[in-house]
Specification:
Layout: E1 5-10, H1 15-26, E2 31-38, E3 46-49, E4 52-58, E5 69-72, H2 76-88, E6 92-95, H3 111-114, E7 124-126, H4 130-146, E8 148-157, H5 164-179, H6 218-231, E9 237-244, E10 251-259, H7 265-273, E11 278-280, H8 292-295, E12 301-308, E13 315-322, H9 326-339
Parallel strand pairs: 1-2, 1-5, 2-4, 5-6, 6-7, 8-9, 11-12
Antiparallel strand pairs: 3-4, 8-10, 10-13, 12-13
Helix pairs in contact: 1-9, 4-6, 4-9
């Protein structure tokens, strides 16, 4: 990369926006000029970038003049309203929301999987759902080698996927429990939760996103719908249960996959060891496998617990962990910008 770019970050003060700035800086992205955009209540505040203070501006329809690349992470409603203004002003939008993911005219990209699709953009490129992106880091190399037919998966999703308020809610609930010196069997707090429908501390909630008539949630269907588009695999099928867990950051996904071709654990490890952006941590005899506390803050995802699935023909079971704020969001968006 040589030519410097005028980059905008929309939603700069959010959990993902903060990580976008960090990724741009750490990866040496050629930012010639940086514009930070957020709501009116954040306007006038400053954020650090390369050691300098950058003043946050209020997001408006005319905020995109002269901008080359606009990284959006402020929710689907904001993206739908303001992304067209950015494109009209000449910017390429990399959108982290679900607003455009299933639009046939918008590429949905994980660079390690389908970076060539970036070339097909008409002004907007979509970042996939965090759980989908993390899962595909391990599933796609296996698909290339063995041809995936379907998967059964359960996610263990960190509160960082909901945003800064959810991170604070988990921290506050854990603090309250510790302050009251409760016993382990009296973990339920009297304070009603604000972000989640149930207390998240010391609990798991099998409910991520809104429910559909089928009984699945929108989040659960993203794995199948987005996976088909990203892998160019219209026959791919996925039955998923998404669960919110009391982990601050990094999502984990347990996957059982059925393939067209016979597959062994040894052959899978060989394939996965060569996959870009993925570390194999798979030595159960020494208690080595990916855990979110270790993977948080890392660019690479990790895979382990690789074994022959005993319930599926040509089946493989494995465990994938990735930082939701990085590969699941900010890092993937910056990698798309690098492709541009």
């Amino acid at each position: 990369m040589s030519t410097s770019k005028h980059v905008a970050v929309v939603g700069a003060t959010g959990a993902v926006g903060v990580e976008m700035l960090r990724c741009l800086e750490q990866r040496g992205f050629p930012v010639g000029q940086l514009t930070l955009l957020a709501s009116a209540r954040s306007a006038g505040k400053t954020m650090k970038f390369r050691g300098a203070d950058v003043v946050i501006q209020e997001l408006k329809a005319d905020s995109f003049k002269g901008i080359d690349i606009a990284l959006f992470s402020a929710g689907g409603g904001i993206s739908k309203e303001f992304a067209p203004h950015a494109v009209a002003a000449g910017a390429v939008v990399v959108d982290n929301s679900s607003a455009f993911r299933m639009d046939d005219t918008v590429p949905l990209v994980v660079p390690e999987v389908n970076r060539e699709d970036v070339k097909k953009h008409q002004g907007i490129i979509a970042n996939p759902n965090c759980t989908t992106a993390i899962s595909l880091m391990a599933l796609y190399p296996l698909h290339q080698a063995f041809g995936v037919k379907r998967i059964f998966a359960s996610s263990y999703q960190a509160v960082s996927g909901t945003g800064a308020q959810a991170i604070e809610e988990l921290a506050n609930q854990a603090r309250r429990w510790a302050d009251t010196k409760r016993e382990w069997d009296a973990a339920k707090l009297e304070h009603p939760p604000q972000v989640y429908p149930h207390q998240i501390a010391f609990n798991v909630i099998p409910h991520v996103d809104s429910f559909l008539d089928s009984g699945y949630t929108k989040e659960e269907m993203k794995m199948e719908n987005e996976g088909r588009k990203i892998m160019h695999h219209p026959g791919f099928r996925a039955s998923v249960t998404c669960v919110r867990v009391p982990v601050f950051r990094a999502h984990s996904v347990a996957i059982s996959a059925e393939f067209e071709k016979p597959v062994t654990a040894e052959a899978a490890r060989e394939v996965l060891s060569r996959a870009p952006g993925l570390d194999v941590i798979d030595d159960p005899s020494h208690k080595k496998y990916p855990v979110p506390l270790d993977i948080a803050g890392r660019d690479n995802c990790a895979v382990g617990r690789i074994r022959q699935d005993c319930a599926l023909d040509n089946g493989l079971a494995f465990w994938v962990v990735g930082d939701q704020l990085l590969k699941g969001a900010a890092l993937n968006a910056v990698q798309i910008a690098e492709c541009l």
